[in-house]
């Protein structure tokens, strides 16, 4: 039986063993509530603040700008709904929020929910490489706008938007700028938060546990968000609830590892991607890349296999843990809305899959994946 190979690092990552080791004491011996006054509580609080500093250190921001959440979805909701809610309460006359058609559902659905508050939702298109035209953003911003939300790296195609440029444009027109950075953290170096007001990240995308994330909220200039729910005033009242100390410690440890090793890791993953694409294109000349190659993450890609359903490739290669980036069941496949938005046909979308490498990927696995996919493709095309 072929050895299983994990190729879905954009969906989630395994916990780094060093992260697990850092977390373990806070499940047992150091189990205190971080808001208790006694020694165990203070020990937990110290661990939380140390982790906050580690997250901030990776991002190059102040620890006071980091709020812990349960993940990027919650961070997106707090950033988008919280910022708009605060601005409306302050009497801001603008009633428009802008985003992009290829955003993650955690952003698109959150923004669509703002319609209940009388907000006009503007969804910008992308070109055939998945990139937004800055001129489209400028045109949309001619109407007074509260917030622009654009992700740094797409979760299906890995395409990178020119975030610094787009954020600066938003500010020129007086709008706040939020960025979903869940896919970008740990894969782009150096990071720049210039002109970014709010940014979301998720622990399980960077070798930390599931169930923890963070929201960056700029303090210079000062950005304010209203709480979406209320409780014990944890995290400055922005995100009430007892802190998940072990998970937060894990996120901090993962960020510290990336700060120390990230540049070298990114370089290695980029080499894997180049070697893989060269090898696969040689084995299957017909394949095509969905999205920009130059403006994309170093570890991932979305590939079109003409003439072959992605579901059939899955069945032929059960030892390869791949994804389409869309809703998938054992019997059917829905076309990716991201690929459709890029002008791809339904047929092309159903013939495409997402593949990503990560920290645990090895060089021998690269050739094994090339061999497995090319053999499967050849067999399906030959009717075998």
UniProtKB/TrEMBL annotation:
The keyword Zinc does not apply. SUPFAM superfamilies: PLP-dependent transferases. GO terms for molecular function: cysteine desulfurase activity; iron-sulfur cluster binding; metal ion binding. Gene3D superfamilies: Aspartate Aminotransferase, domain 1 (3.90.1150.10), Type I PLP-dependent aspartate aminotransferase-like (Major domain) (3.40.640.10). InterPro entries: Aminotrans_V_dom, Aminotrans_V_PyrdxlP_BS, Cysteine_dSase, PyrdxlP-dep_Trfase, PyrdxlP-dep_Trfase_major, PyrdxlP-dep_Trfase_small. It catalyses: (sulfur carrier)-H + L-cysteine = (sulfur carrier)-SH + L-alanine. Residues 5-368 form the Aminotransferase class V domain. Keywords: Iron, Iron-sulfur, Metal-binding, Pyridoxal phosphate, Transferase. Its EC number is 2.8.1.7. Its cofactor is pyridoxal 5'-phosphate. It comes from the Bacteria. Belongs to the class-V pyridoxal-phosphate-dependent aminotransferase family. NifS/IscS subfamily. Catalyzes the removal of elemental sulfur atoms from cysteine to produce alanine. Seems to participate in the biosynthesis of the nitrogenase metalloclusters by providing the inorganic sulfur required for the Fe-S core formation. This is Cysteine desulfurase. The lineage of its organism: Bacteria, Pseudomonadati, Pseudomonadota, Alphaproteobacteria, Acetobacterales.
